[in-house]
Each structure stands twice: as structure tokens, then as C-alpha cells.
Amino acid sequence: MARTGWMLAALAMVQTGGAAAQAVKAKPAVASPAPASMAEPGAIPLYPPARGKQGKAAETEIWNINPGEGRSVRNVTVPTLTPVLPEAGKANGAAVIVAPGGGFMMLSMDHEGYKVARQLADRGIAAFVLKYRLIPTPADQKEAMREMAARIGAAVRGGPGAAKLEKPEATADAIAALRMVRTDAAKWGVDPARIGMIGFSAGAMTALNVVLQAPAAERPAFFGYIYGPQTAVAVPADAPPMFNAIAMDDQLFPTMGFPIAEAWHKAKRPVEIHAYQKGYHGFGLGRPGTTTTLLMDEFHAWMAMQGFLGSQTKK
């Protein structure tokens, strides 16, 4: 989830004091409307059109431009996958599906999607930006922000009867995306055994859900779990390697140690943790002035160490 105005409002509901309070007091970014059908050259629908209503369903999307972060979209009902491929002769055969965050109510398409994909492609990795289905929100932007903030606040506060922030269809879309890339691996110049995922916030939760819920053959070969909840889970015996990154001053998922990484380690599955001193939630490719700017270099080096870049030997 990008650190825009609606998320700051949610955080204000549940936190006070310290760095979190300073972040909440920051002036909220105001999203400006964008064309209803923002151009996404090369976007591929994940599923066949339902009775010829593909175009009409896509019209439900509401796009905005967030200062400093770029495009975001709400009310996605037609999931798509957009390839961002390396230059000719640069590809190493690895692929990563990129799942942006946004509380399952919006997607930070540039900040946690296309910008990430381009950095992967620059490193020879075929990237695919996943636009997954979302919880519907009001068409009016201000009303939508209020509803999103209320949902985030309720989910973070928790308590008896608190609704979980989730969208099962997002997991189904991620599984379908993995299936699509594997099926067309030859067309993309990709090794089917080296297709992973990287998800941010709600996208991280989606990637984790795929690992926990999908049959082994449909899981990603590896995954990046970027500022997702650190709660422990039951780790499959054959779970893929995990790259876990979060800022220690994350306002949405306050530090609680790293139970999820510990669970991976106890299951004797590969896991690496990057706990940045500063960066807040939603730092994307990195917040200037913090070591979060090293994220993609570290993720790339980790992929190499695991043997997913082809020329390196797995250790």
C-alpha cells in the first residue's frame, strides 16, 4: 500500500506517538483523477471474456495519479497481466510476477508495479505486472478514501468480530497469472522452473496466500514478501524460498519480531530478512535517505544466490 492520504487517515485511527505519529501528521497526498481507461499497452486479460462483457467490466476501473507515486487504480473487475521484458540479449531466463499493494481496495500500479517491473527487466529478468481484482469502493474519490481508511483502521485495530482485509479473488488471479506465464514460457523466453513473485503489502499477502493455498506445482519458485504482516504461518514442507523485507518503523505492521521468517526457518526452508531501520510502510523501490533504496539490488543478489539467475550455482 502506498503511503498516500487515505492510508495516513487509516493510520491516524489506530496509532499515536513516535515516528508513526510524525508520518500521520504529514500532509496527505491528494490524488488527481485520470482517464477512466488508463493506457496499459500489452495488458493481457487473465480470463476469457465473460459473455462478451470484457470491455464493460473494465469500465468500472477508476484511475488516479498520486503525487510522487504515479498511477493507481480502484474497482478492478477484469484482472490483467502486463509483460515488461528485458532488452534482446539481456534476458537470463528468470521471471517475476509483480503484485502491487493497496489494501485490496486499490493498486499502486506505478509505485509498486511498473517501476518495480522495469528495474527487474533492466537486470535481465522478465517481469509481469499483475492487476488483480479488488474490493469495490465508491466512485467518488473522497468517499472512497473515507471508506478505505475505515476498513484499514478496523482491520489494524482487530478485536472480536473484526473483518479481515482480504480478497480471495486476488489469490485466484495470482495463481492464474503464474499459470499463464508457465504456459507461454517459451514465448516470453522464460524458464518455467524459475518463475517467482514479488508482492508489496496486500500484494505480499497475495503472494503468501498462493504459497500457502496453491498445489505445489502452481506455487511460485520463490517470492519476495515486501512489507507484509510478520505474523507466523504454517509453512508447507516444500515451501519456496522467501525474501522478507520491512522497515522497522512500519506504521501499518508495527514491529513484532519476525515470526513469519522464523516459521520458514523452523520448517528448514530458505529465508532471508531485511529489516530496514527507517522507511515507513509503502516505501516501494526505496525512500530517499534510507537504506530501503537497496531493496532491488538485494532482491537481485538473493535471487542469484538461490540459483534463479541461471549462470550462478545454487548454494
From TrEMBL:
Name listed for the protein in its UniProt record: Alpha/beta hydrolase fold-3 domain-containing protein
Taxonomic lineage from the root: Bacteria, Pseudomonadati, Pseudomonadota, Alphaproteobacteria, Sphingomonadales
Cleavable signal peptide: 1-21
InterPro entries referenced in this protein's UniProt entry, alphabetically: AB_hydrolase_3 (IPR013094), AB_hydrolase_fold (IPR029058), GDXG_lipolytic_enzyme (IPR050300)
Any one Gene Ontology molecular-function term assigned to this protein's record: hydrolase activity
Keywords: Hydrolase, Signal
Organism name: Sphingobium quisquiliarum P25
Domain Alpha/beta hydrolase fold-3 residue range list: 167-228
Keyword Signal: yes
Keyword Signal: yes
